[in-house]
Amino acid sequence: GQLDKGGYPHFMLKEIFEQPDCLTNCMRGRVNVDTDNVVLSAIIDYKKQLINAKRFIIVACGTSWHAGQIGKQMIENFCRIPVEVEYASEFRYRNPVITSDDVVIAISQSGETADTLAAVKLAKDNGAFIYGICNAIGSSIPRATNTGSYIHVGPEIGVASTKAFTGQVTVLTMLALALAKEKGTISSSDYLEIVKELHEIPEKMKKVLELNDRISELSRIFTYAHNFLYLGRGYSYPVALEGALKLKEISYIHAEGYPAAEMKHGPIALIDSDMPVVVIATHNAMYEKVLSNIQEVKARKGKVIAIVTEGDDNISRIADEVIELPTTIECLEPLLATIPLQLLAYHIAVCKGKNVDQPRNLAKSVTVE
Ligand code: G6P
């Protein structure tokens, strides 16, 4: 009923707005700025298995797989351990190479996704150590793993995942930081800076949520579209994938997420004045390159919605619409950049009169193959 939605018209919007509190809960007792420390109990209890991993294999589906793509980049960057990210449904059926030197990270909001559970069992039978990142306490996947960390974001009701995604990315960030510290693969200044910034993310998320009215207005302009392209690079590439998935799931507009530089190898052929292109163009190492991708889109009359870092005046001159985010460290940008994309998908779907909490053909947890 209305009460459960906390005054919001839909669970999805309520869950989008809960994210600052969810992340505070997710980090409670785990991220301590006073002691400059990140503590995950799983890492204390199973330190040997985790720091000696020769490789991580992340298995997941849907939005959880996108979180895994961000986790891969952080673990490889900070811990210097190779990471593969696998669709659980593919992994389980293709006779994958799994050894006892592997640590498999299973990411699942529901903890019940059939393919992810099967991938966990397969990996376990082959001697891998299994670490779960789940939301639903006591669900099947956490019961099948050796250890894990809950994301603690509370029940997610909207079929399109929102707060679980940012919770998963937060746990992966804590995991990467804690492991890197144990392994000595991160400088103490980098570590301290990221811990400090991570702690500030909930406050910065609140700032991003203040953009809701602006995004609601903007969404009306784009309800006409039959296709959307989402572009990002580095840490923003999985954000582009997730933004496109949100739009597909609830508005039924076809959308594709792409690494920005790959656009020239295909999707650029689709760009004309009817094509909205959402570009994550925050101020980081890839900025100049993404800026030139925006120019390529504009040269073909595409409509650019740019997600930028506050104070950016280059992009505001060429993009059709600009959404500004507070500054943060590059690896934490996904936690902020995802929010406007969730809101954009939400408002477009609402404008089109779609059932955002229960989109057609989709299930909250897919317990069959
Ligand atoms: C379904 C849901 C998605 C979710 C995916 C994986 O498709 O609709 O929102 O991302 O399953 O679910 P899991 O519970 O394993 O994260």
Low-confidence stretches: none
Number of strands: 12
* Count of discrete alpha- or pi-helical segments spanning 4 or more residues: 14
Sheet bearing the most strands, described? 5 strands, parallel
Helix content: 40-55%
Termini Cα gap = 31 Å
Strand order, largest beta sheet:
4-3-5-6-7
Dominant shape: globular
Q: What compounds are bound to the protein?
A: 6-O-phosphono-alpha-D-glucopyranose
Rounded Rg:
20 Å
Quaternary structure classification: single chain
Order of helices and strands: HEEHHEHEHEHEHEHHHEHEEHEHEH
Structural class category:
alpha/beta
DSSP strand content = 15-25%
Active site: 364
Function: Catalyzes the first step in hexosamine metabolism, converting fructose-6P into glucosamine-6P using glutamine as a nitrogen source.
GO molecular function: glutamine-fructose-6-phosphate transaminase (isomerizing) activity
Subcellular location: Cytoplasm
Question: Could you please describe the fold and organization of this structure?
Answer:
Keywords: Aminotransferase, Cytoplasm, Glutamine amidotransferase, Repeat, Transferase. Its EC number is 2.6.1.16. It is an enzyme of class 2 (transferase). Homodimer. The protein is built from 14 helices and 12 strands. It is α/β, with parallel strands linked by helices and 369 residues long. The longest helix has 22 residues. The protein starts with 10 loop residues before the first helix and ends in an 18-residue tail after the last helix. Bound molecules: 6-O-phosphono-alpha-D-glucopyranose. The site of 6-O-phosphono-alpha-D-glucopyranose has 15 residues, from helix 4.
